[in-house]
């Protein structure tokens, strides 16, 4: 594998962060979504078809990418809260192997907007979230940029991220609230501590009031504040974690699989609550494999496959009559039990040995010869033969 | 038949999570058990899989009452039931390569010799490539590991399958793929299925018959959330 010049135009490769994140090996980084070297996220495999394995792997981006600003920009036309440009993440493995976990991600999230990043486990979506939070393991290299205001999250040091970003400018709603809450302490004491940390406030009654307000904003019942995490139902634990995430009044909320393992009612309630915070003018990036949850909460949808965003479009168009245009997105949607319930054949490719061209080609029924070259992301979709949208003018992109 | 009569079960006798549950699955039938998070349906599934001894009530498997559970259950009964859980990472020995994970029940029942052929056949069925079979759980994705766990559940050709939230962690395509694997197996063998879940759309599409938790445990007016 060569250096990663997959972006011929912007050719700069961010060196490994000058100060490796101190948290890289702590449990914070070790929730099961964040891979250790070669772990789950990287574990996708070569599909059954003939996938050309090249030494340069994804670096052989022949056509490069043509980011489509229209598709990437928020619909409201306001300055984005988060602006991600050609973000790539590589994991370096012993033996010189490189895992292309994320390649050239390009999108914005505006205030009052929810972008849902969807895809199957191992597609790179959780690695992307970890990159934004500075929680990648030490063997990761990043390239590109991710601007939160004028701060580039990819080059900011761990001190900055820990002191001014996580919890303050980005509220993290975790996948597993149970793991995020401290088991031996009541919800009230955890909330008060978080308020104290973020505001420097020491006055007990002020802390108490602030904690109760935070609980109220997340719909957490005040009469449960003195309980311990194990005394809460899954839904209330999720609300407690959401309340903690909201305390810092962060303009950007990042939710990583917030509904896994919840029943449908609870999923609906959880995403409806998240939506309320979006409607209160926050930006929300939600990472999920739950398409029903995405449909319920999102304004726009970005579909990730083998580390790349292959389609980014309005949620109404995606889930509605026009439908998605990328063959993978269509396959994913068609697999739903209330649609045709038909799986996409094959498996996703190995992120360590991606083909030069379209990574979906071995599984794609529209593939032709040209698909051996990388399809650029144009007009909201990265595909040489996208399905026609039935009513293109409805596409918000 | 797989019969559960008046089952009360849990982890603390004073506070059972399942009270007086009744449920029957006919041979070849697919029954979906639907209930909210934390209602106790997974505990009932473990009782049905002979993995958890109920505090009271009767389990009758193919006409014979069950008296012993877990490792004490006679081998012929344990091997009649294949089980798949929600979280593959909690149910897979992290030290085993996927091939050994799938073959585990064969080895445990002294059928080691048949393992290579059977594992290859099942890997193909569940869509795992040979390359993946040499990896350990931390080197594969959740979806790939769950494929291996489904293969493991089928390896002894069980007459009954218990799938407890089998697809809750999976994307739509992997969900559809694994449900198809289970259904193809049932079509070929006539095995019965108890699928426990919380997604009504999925359970309705998958199963012949859907039962709701509150009709299975009518006596339990209130269950801990
Ligand atoms: S048509 Fe070609 S470019 Fe589009 S998804 Fe299929 S293989 Fe990829």
UniProtKB/TrEMBL annotation, chain A:
PROSITE patterns: ABC_TRANSPORTER_2. It is an enzyme of class 7 (translocase). Its EC number is 7.2.2.11. It is a peripheral membrane protein. Its main location: membrane. It comes from the Bacteria. It is found in: Cell membrane. Residues 1-14, 22-33, 67-76 have a biased composition (Low complexity). Transmembrane segments: none annotated. GO terms for molecular function: ABC-type nickel transporter activity; ATP binding; ATP hydrolysis activity. SMART domains: AAA. One of its GO terms (cellular component) is plasma membrane. GO terms for biological process: peptide transport. Residues 84-331 form the ABC transporter domain. It catalyses: Ni(2+)(out) + ATP + H2O = Ni(2+)(in) + ADP + phosphate + H(+). Residues 1-76 are annotated as: Disordered. Pfam families: ABC_tran (PF00005), oligo_HPY (PF08352). Keywords: ATP-binding, Cell membrane, Ion transport, Membrane, Nickel, Nickel transport, Nucleotide-binding, Translocase, Transport. SUPFAM superfamilies: P-loop containing nucleoside triphosphate hydrolases. The complex is composed of two ATP-binding proteins (NikD and NikE), two transmembrane proteins (NikB and NikC) and a solute-binding protein (NikA). PANTHER family: NICKEL ABC TRANSPORTER, ATP-BINDING PROTEIN (PTHR43297:SF13), OLIGOPEPTIDE TRANSPORT ATP-BINDING PROTEIN APPD (PTHR43297). Belongs to the ABC transporter superfamily. This is Nickel import system ATP-binding protein NikD. It comes from Streptomyces pilosus. The lineage of its organism: Bacteria, Bacillati, Actinomycetota, Actinomycetes, Kitasatosporales.
Automatic annotation (TrEMBL), chain B:
SUPFAM superfamilies: P-loop containing nucleoside triphosphate hydrolases. InterPro entries: AAA+_ATPase, ABC_transp_ATP-bind, ABC_transporter-like_ATP-bd, P-loop_NTPase. It comes from the Bacteria. Keywords: ATP-binding, Nucleotide-binding, Transport. GO terms for biological process: transmembrane transport. PROSITE patterns: ABC_TRANSPORTER_2. Residues 2-223 form the ABC transporter domain. One of its GO terms (molecular function) is ATP hydrolysis activity. PANTHER family: D,D-DIPEPTIDE TRANSPORT ATP-BINDING PROTEIN DDPF-RELATED (PTHR43776:SF7), TRANSPORT ATP-BINDING PROTEIN (PTHR43776). Belongs to the ABC transporter superfamily. This is ABC transporter ATP-binding protein. It comes from Streptomyces pilosus. The lineage of its organism: Bacteria, Bacillati, Actinomycetota, Actinomycetes, Kitasatosporales.
